[in-house]
């Protein structure tokens, strides 16, 4: 069974002039359990809309979204999926531990179990000694780790990421890539992330979905069979990046 399936999904948005905007057209994607899938494309091709459909935040106008074989409108186990946004969205009046705990507070989990999970997840991302620090006391990379911990504390099976590392400098971004791959393997998660960065797609993903714009449609689905870890400067990674850039440049605008 696939973790996520999109079956001929299309989407339109209303505009003020009354003419609907065709955002996505007949998207077919199957994402296996434990896969790491990049949705790659330029700005305006519908990447984030597609991710929001998987998350259940946006309904398709045509086609179906299935999660673990269940249509999204009937899916009830939403704690099995979490979403890491481009902005870290940390609450400035909460410590790192309190920000991580936020995702558990809406349920009926006992305090002791919440605290155990928070401590365990902060340790997982290397921030156990910063549990009592406030966001303004943390570096950009550390804030990203807190945001990642907040996404992981519910122990999801599917993690969605909307360019969460795009604002980090290259060295910190590379560290976050390595950390994400380590945790994904440790937790046996399925990762789906959107990016416009070809190199990031190749370094992280074992499958890349190239979207062409206006309306967003699949230009290519390419498997990346390179072993991890992947050195961005290696010849194999450079060649994959080159091929994907050609695929992107062939998009009909």
UniProtKB/TrEMBL annotation:
Gene3D superfamilies, sorted: P-loop containing nucleotide triphosphate hydrolases (3.40.50.300)
Matches recorded under SMART domains: AAA
One Pfam family of this chain: ABC_tran
Keywords: ATP-binding, Hydrolase, Nucleotide-binding, Transport
Signal peptide: none
The family this protein is said to belong to: Belongs to the ABC transporter superfamily.
Superkingdom of origin organism: Bacteria
Catalytic EC class: hydrolase
InterPro entries, per database record: AAA+_ATPase (IPR003593), ABC_transporter-like_ATP-bd (IPR003439), ABC_transporter-like_CS (IPR017871), ABC_transporter_ATP-bind (IPR050166), P-loop_NTPase (IPR027417)
EC number: 3.6.3.-
Organism this protein belongs to: Methylobacterium dankookense
Name by which UniProt lists this protein: Bicarbonate transport ATP-binding protein CmpC
GO MF term list: ATP binding; ATP hydrolysis activity
């Amino acid at each position: 069974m696939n973790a996520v399936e999109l079956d001929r999904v299309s989407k339109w948005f209303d505009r003020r002039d009354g003419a609907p905007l065709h955002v996505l057209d007949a998207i077919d994607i199957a994402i296996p359990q434990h896969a790491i899938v990049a949705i790659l494309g330029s700005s305006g091709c519908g990447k984030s809309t597609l991710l929001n459909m998987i998350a259940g935040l946006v309904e398709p106008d045509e086609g179906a979204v299935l999660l673990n074989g269940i249509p999204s409108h009937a899916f009830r186990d939403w704690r099995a999926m979490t979403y890491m946004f481009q902005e870290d969205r940390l609450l400035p009046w909460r410590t790192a531990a309190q920000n991580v705990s936020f995702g558990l507070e809406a349920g009926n989990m006992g305090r002791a179990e919440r605290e155990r999970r928070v401590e365990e997840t902060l340790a997982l991302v290397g921030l156990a000694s910063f549990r009592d620090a406030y966001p303004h006391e943390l570096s950009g990379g550390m804030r990203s780790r807190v945001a990642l911990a907040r996404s992981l504390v519910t122990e999801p099976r599917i993690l969605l990421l909307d360019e969460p590392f795009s604002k980090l400098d290259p060295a910190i971004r590379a560290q976050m890539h390595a950390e994400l791959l380590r945790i994904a393997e440790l937790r046996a998660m399925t990762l789906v992330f959107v990016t416009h960065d070809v190199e990031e797609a190749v370094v992280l993903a074992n499958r890349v979905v190239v979207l062409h714009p206006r309306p967003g449609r699949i230009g290519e689905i390419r498997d990346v069979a390179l072993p991890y870890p992947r050195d961005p400067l290696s010849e194999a990674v450079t060649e994959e990046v080159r091929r994907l850039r050609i695929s992107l440049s062939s998009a009909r605008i």
